[in-house]
Every structure is written in C-alpha cells, then in structure tokens.
Amino acid sequence: MATKTDGGVVETIKTVFWALLIAGVFRTLFFQPFWIPSGSMKDTLLIGDFLFVNKMAYGYSAHSCPFSACPIEGRLFGSEPERGDVVVFRHPTRGVDFIKRVVGLPGDRVQVIDGVLQINGSPVQLQDGGQFTEVKDLQGPQGLMPRCSNDPVGQGGTCIKERKIETLPNGASHSILNITNNWVADNTPVFAVPEGQYFFMGDNRDNSEDSRFPAAAGGLGFVPAEYLIGRADRVMFSSAGRSLFFFWTWRPDRFFKAIE
C-alpha cells in the first residue's frame, strides 16, 4: 500500500526531472551560462565575469549541447558572425569552451606586424586608450597572477598595461591591451582564412592563446563554423574574488554591462 510519504517522494522526483529538462532545453536553445576563467580578453572581460551566451545568434550544431551531444551535422539555422563579435566556441581539438573575438572572416588574409593587426593588407585603426591598471594579486578560482608592462611589480602593487582602441574594417571598435613589444606573436606570417572558418584573437594581445598559434603546432588555429556556440552580449554579474560567495569582491559597476 502506497503511503503519503511515497507519493511525496515521487512528486519531488518528477519536479526535479522537469526542472532539469526545462533548464537543459533553455541552455541548449537559448542562453548558456559562462564564467570568464582567464585574462585573455581583458579589459573587455575580466576574470570572474559571468555572462549568458546567446545560442540563437549563429544557429545550432553538435556542440550546442553539453558534451557535444546534439545529433546535428554542420549547422542548423546557421548565420555568420560579424567581425568584432565576442564568441564562445568549442576548441576543435581540446573539447573545452573558449571565448575570443572574431577578427578574420572566411577569405580574409590576417597578419600581425609589430603588434598591429593587419586585415587584407591594411592595418586596423588604433587610437590611444590610456592605461589599464589593476592590482597585481591572485585572480579568480585558479589564482592567476596578471602580467604587467611595468614588471617587476610586487604582489599588491599597481599592474599597468597599455590600452589602445582598435577599429576593425566594419567600424566595430573595442579596447585591446599590450604588455610588451617583443612577444612571440607580435609578428606572424599571413594567415589565409579558409571558407567556413574564422580567425580569433584575444583582446589582451600578449596574454592570449588564439588563432595566431596554428593548430599544427598545438595552438588554436582556425575555428570551423560548426564549433561556434554563441555570442557574448552582456556581462550579468562579476566578482573579483576566488568565490562567488565573497560578496565584498563583487563588482557592481560591471553588472549588466554590454560587451563591445
């Protein structure tokens, strides 16, 4: 004979099941949560920023589902990212999610000369953006220490990076950071972006593993369209601490901040 307690357990299981199903559908079709784990996109995105990725922006692929489990070949309802979009995508070889900025579209020729991005033989426009400063201290759950253009800087000191405003050929503008003028990826060969693939770079140019490092050498390389997950449009929440619960490290000035 079923008891009232038995019925309560069954109802609880049903409620949890439907809640998880609805959350999974929402995450797959509409918006996926994403925490910024590293400093490769400073100062557009900081370690500890929390955002929702717009899954509708570029359509759907196998990688739209957790564990790349969607039964989709190619892209469904696909649309092209615009140059300058900040995109979350699945790393083609490592199976983890990355976030970078699209700078090269299919058919483009991309190169970096003396730290300046060149697209189809022309340098992008750069304007002075002042300095980006932060405290040199452990950041985020991983306890990452920022690199500074004024190193050596002691822990707790002021870490400085040069900031420029970069304008791409389509008029999209955003800030980029420079740490050194002698970094390994400040001068590259010409990359011809294949059809159906994209060239990504981080805004923190001297602290980003991106398409400047070819896949054949263990880097990111070009990213095929089917690996795109969605567009990052707005920071919803931000915490500078090592835990979400350290409320005294929250950054209210970044809540609901548009991503440019």
What does this structure look like?
About 10% of the residues lie in helices and about 30% in strands. The chain is mainly β and about 260 residues long. Strands 1, 2, 3, 4, 12, 13, 14 and 15 form an 8-stranded antiparallel β-sheet that branches. A 4-stranded antiparallel β-sheet has the order 7-6-5-11, with no helix packed on it. A 3-stranded antiparallel β-sheet has the order 8-9-10, with no helix packed on it. The longest helix is centred in the first third of the chain and has 26 residues, at about 5-30. It has one helix spanning about 5-30; strands spanning about 30-35, 50-55, 85-90, 95-105, 110-115, 115-120, 120-125, 125-135, 160-165, 175-180, 190, 195-200, 225, 230-240, 255-260.
Structural class: mainly beta
Helix run count? 1
List low-confidence stretches: none
Any idea what the radius of gyration is?
21 Å
Under the CATH scheme, which architecture would be assigned? Ribbon
In the residues, how many domains can be counted?
1
Strand content: 25-35%
Superfamily (CATH H level) name:
Umud Fragment, subunit A
Q: Averaging pLDDT over every residue, what do you get?
A: 89
Distance between the termini: 62 Å
InterPro entries: LexA/Signal_pep-like_sf, Pept_S26A_signal_pept_1, Pept_S26A_signal_pept_1_CS, Pept_S26A_signal_pept_1_Lys-AS, Peptidase_S26
EC number: 3.4.21.89
Family: Belongs to the peptidase S26 family.
Pfam families: Peptidase_S26 (PF10502)
Compact overview of the structure:
By secondary structure, the protein is mainly beta. The mean pLDDT is 89. The protein has one helix spanning 4-29; strands spanning 31-35, 49-54, 86-90, 97-104, 109-113, 116-119, 122-123, 125-135, 158-167, 173-178, 191-192, 197-201, 223-224, 228-238, 257-258.
